[in-house]
Amino acid sequence: MRRSALALGLARRVKRRVLGTAHYARRVSLGSLRRVRAVLPGPRPKSADAPANRQVSRDLRRLQLANRLSRRPAIDPNGTTVVTVTTHGARIERAYIALESIARGGARPARLILWLDDEEIFRALPHSLRRLERRGLEVILDLNAYKVHTKYYPYVKSVDAHVMPLVTADDDVLYPREWLSALQAEHALFPNDVICFRAHRIPVVGNALGPYKTWTPCSDLHAGISNLGTSVSGQLFPAPLVNAIRDKGDAFRTLVPDADDLWLHVCTVEQNVATRQIGRQSLTFPYVPGSQAAGLYLQNVWNGGNDAAVMRIYSQVAIEAIREDALRAQSADG
Fold first, then answer.
1. Rounded to whole angstroms, how far apart are CA atoms 29 and 47?
2. Model confidence over 188-202: pLDDT tens digits?
3. In this structure, what are the phi and psi dihedrals at residue 161, rounded to the nearest 5 degrees?
């Protein structure tokens, strides 16, 4: 299916704006103005503890001001997607920034949900989140100890039959205004695919998936099950897949408690649902200063956590399907 002129124009606008912010994310993490693209499988950017440049500082001030003064609803009753987020510990104090960046968009979700798994935090929410609640944010407590899967699973299991796509987001990212609009526009063109801004191509070596550090950023328009989307830049899951994720249950609690993106990808492979990256460039948006985003990422990547998780959840049938799709992607690109 060919993209409409409207969708292409939107993608270009998003790319121009996002690439400007990506300069910041890459500079503070790698010390180089030349590195704009998200560089994986290197360490997750350390911009959370680095001084923000002028552009990001201005964006932060606008979002802080909006949180104090804005009366604009954070949701749209006519919205076509649900956006879910989770946070924990001290990050609760800054979670409003990512939520405000979502709420400012031209497209707003029908529901914007922040899931918490800590009753003490839930009962003492900061004023920043209370203000967002008055504008439509839902803050919901779930004590099932789903860890990182709290981002999506409590919502997934709460609906008997999903009809809206689910968009997952992180609590430590500054999302551009066109973020949700672009995801929704791409979904309208490819309604059966997972849509994301940041994906990796999964290699198969012998009878196994290659080491996680060799999963390289996608740099083409191939959509397939050999692409793994990452929720840090946002992912949209079509409603039928959301139902399948719910039906698969919570075996992730023992199999991959700290690897939500891997578990969600296994679900897409089992349902033969393609993952489609918006544009040829894998994008990472700026991180909220002080959010200390790198810890779990470094544990999963550099300490081998993801490789161990991969061995537990990808069947040989799934590996062969990924191999065939990766070969198709290579053939199309070559």
1. 6
2. 999 999 999 999 999
3. -145, 105
